Write the structure tokens for this entry.
Amino acid sequence: MGYLVRRSTNALLLTQLQVECLPGDDPITVEDHDQWWVVWLDKQPVGFAALRPCQGHPTMGYLARAGVAPEHRGRGLQRRLIKVRENAGRRRGMAVMVTDTHLTNHASSNNLIRCGYRLYEPGGRWAFGDGLYWLKHL
């Protein structure tokens, strides 16, 4: 059986996936992001991603936290999660997606580039000091 991506509201599962997929990062509050997805292989959760509208900008979506278990990386799951969130954003009337990565997170940066995202400098930096900011018009 192949990978399936499904919506989820299970806060405990989403928090556990954040801890497993992104060790060393503090999990974000599930309730602060209104749409979450989980990647399943058979009955095992192996990845996750979140989307929320940007505060004060209802036509702009923020690709929030996303992660894939190490043993499932390199199989296109992050790009698939990006596309799922873009499609959800379009259905909600979002015209632009933004996100951020650490400067040294080359895998995430390359996935965003492959999906058509470009670097930009926001009016106010909201992420980490060494963050890169990405934007795509849908």
Remarks:
- The mean pLDDT is 93.
- The first strand starts at residue 3 and ends at 8.
- The chain has one domain: 3-137.
- The radius of gyration is 14 Å.
